[in-house]
Specification:
By secondary structure, the chain is α+β, with helices and mostly antiparallel strands. It has seven helices and ten strands. Strands 1-10-9-4-5-6-2-3 form an eight-stranded mixed beta sheet. Strands 7-8 form a two-stranded antiparallel ribbon. A hairpin with a 4-residue loop joins strand 2 and strand 3. The longest helix has 21 residues.
Length: 211
Amino acid sequence: MNDLFKAPWPWLMSVIVLVVGSTLAWHATLGFKAFTWESYRRLYVLKQPIDMPDLQLQDQDGRLFTPAEYKGKLVLVNFVYTRCPGLCTFSGSVYGRLLKALAHDNRRDQVQLLSISLDPVYDTPVHLREYRSRFTRATNAAWRVARPLPAQGGVNLLAQFGVISIPDGLGGIKHNAAIHLIDRKGRLVQILDENDYANILRVVNEELKSG
């Protein structure tokens, strides 16, 4: 008899481990397509939209509101903090450009821009307002910069959206740089690159045309 079959259990266990491991890897990478956390969460929401949690927010003018108010609109959500030395400045400049683009072709009432603070204790309305003013002189509510209330209220949102928010040990925060598209039903349906402005406008236009 072939030596392979004289001691079948080690061979069989190796096959089982290989099959189970491959199956787990398949699911963990969404079919071997996602090999980073960022790519995983982006592919995940395309397959399975996530409901926007109902949380209370306070904007740059001190007004209280919830994301549920925007059902029926498209909402673009990013995450920033006002003391951010670099990345959040770029995020703000992108929103400033989007605000102008939406106003230019009368889509302001169909799309809401929302920036949510990762540092809600420090980011009082005064700091949120100062942050917003760096990128636009507009005073309308088409772009709201807000913080969760209470301060820990945004933790569930970060967890559901898969957003990473980690202190960097230098007084800053490491976090995802992306724009999260919330559809008219209040679901996260796409995660977009902030540095691909043309694609952001393309996706928004497609969503608006889809009704």
